[in-house]
Amino acid sequence: MLFAWLRRRNRPTTVPTAVPVLPSGVWPILPAAQLLQPHTQLITHIRKLSGVPDDYWRTLYQPLLDNFAAFVQQTPASEAHHHCAQGGMLTHSLQVMKLALESRKGKMLPPGAAAEDVNKQQHAWTFAIASAALLHDVGKPCSDQKLRLYNANGQDTHNYWQPLQGALQSGYYQVQFVRDRQYRTHELLPPLLARQLTPDAALSWLQQDFPGVFKAWLGYLSGQDEVAGVLGQIVTEADRQSVVDDLSGSRPIHTQQIPTAKAKPLSQRLLTGLRHLLDEQLLTLNRPGAAGFFDGDSLWLVSKRVLDELRNHLEKEGQTGIPSRNDRLMDELQQHGILTPTVAGQAIWNATVKAGTMEQSFTLLRIPASTLWADPAQFPKELEGTITPNAKDGEAKASKPPAPAPTQAAPAPTNQTVVPEAAPAPTVSASPTPVAEQTAPTNTKPVSEDEDAWLLPVDASASVSTDTGQEAAASTSPWGDDDDLLPPTIQPSTPESPSPVAPAPQQAAPVPAHKPATTTNTIPATKVHLPEATGNPDSDDTGERFLHWLSEGLRNGQHPVNTTEAFLHTVKEGVLLVSPRAFKLFAPDNWEYVQKRFTKLKLHKPAPNDSNIWMYHVRGEKKSGMVRGFLISNPLETLGVAHLPTPNKALSLPHQK
């Protein structure tokens, strides 16, 4: 006992290392494994989407992820825009990687190639898309930010990280934002940094064995869209979707900014400026010649006039970075859920305002009053009249209509919606600037006869089944293990063959990939009586839940129609539901089962060849292609809407001229 006591007494005690007291916004340099750990579930999904054997993952993907995480650490993706929180750069890049791989699974690459070449190059295309997506913003920590270094004791070294010399090693750092930076310089840096972060085995493999893939990869990283081709389109769309998802989230951007951020988000500056102009009555309301009208729920603001005055006000205050184009301002407001969109998802409403002896048509922006003022007591006086949107834009809203004279016949209802029959498909550009109050521009690029850049090659959608027994095509590509597909440093190995298992009918409901944002831009209840939404969100049937998601998204403007991003297109025969895109947006990991359950509802019209999938020609001035999907022949009743846009003139059945 004595000796044991002496041993315990003489045992050296471990003194815990004291964590230094650090200034606000100073973070420790962490190893890659610790940085990636919070994203384990996302990385697991990325690995599944890649569809590669373990050798590929260990030699190509994992080193790239490790190098990238160690390089960007916990830097944000921006100061006052998307993913501006701590760690936003890593989160955004992984999300873009995932979205790009999801899009890649529906494409045969390279476009137009023989099946043998497609099979041979598929691993190379997948890695090129995944790595380009991960590296697309890697230049930001070099050009838009500078990292001030602190030593292991938390002392300021007064030095800054030199990113071209490699990743941070130890100690602490503080992110500072570069003022008066050279705009878009970060887009020029990825080729330089890709050499530092991409495994040597991957570079040699692409450059030696797949020069076409390597060229497209370099083209994207160098900002040459014409060289990047379809690879650039996939990554660009994934980047856009990640930005939209973040900006439309429930947390305001200014609440996510890191401590060293100084700039206010543009969306908040626009709101503050607009509130000031209204409170000071510099923008008049509810009278002839006014800048806007208030119906009790929403402000309807004359688009060009208000945006011009708002820009002038901010510039007079000395604010910088204000876009000079009105469409850019509208995009900013719409991205952050400040504007209430039309049924077609557009920012601009066309409406007729009646008040007293005034009756005039305007192009208007619609903003919920609760977005501008938290206290209803601050709301403006309500218009004594009516605001009636065009039938194609949405419901009518009456605001205390004046009582008719005793001898006057009762006015016709203004809230009836009519489907336009002869209006041509819109052909406006992607982001036009409104030039007159009576013009109806849109900030969404429509599919029209004059626009053909989006067209799919005929075989680009070949993976979509056209047989009733194959509408749920396998989501895992049957990639082989040919020796010439492997990087030179990897020995051939036979991956386990994927064996998809059909989900049980009573499985848990899939989580929709794009839930409508919980913001104030949801169209408020009005006096208009629209049909009830179809489907059942609480049903045990996945097909019913998908139908409700489809109906609700169409009714509240979440799902665009007849645009380049749309999976819904009006045609002469009804509505074309593009497959598999619509189902993948609802349930990326389980879309085949959702599609099968939707088919069981028998809401679609079978194709002439007894299949479920219709093939439509898409014609532009220079290109043509095919788009495929389910045809809903009675869309108003099936989807629970009162009206739909006129048929898209760019789409037609093969036998039509």
Automatic annotation (TrEMBL):
SMART domains: HDc
Compositional bias ranges of the Low complexity kind: 406-436, 504-517
Domain HD/PDEase: 85-253
Record-linked Pfam families: TraI_2, TraI_2_C
Annotated transmembrane regions: none
Region of interest: Disordered: 384-450, 462-544
Residue ranges with Polar residues bias: 462-478
Identification of the protein by name: TraI domain-containing protein
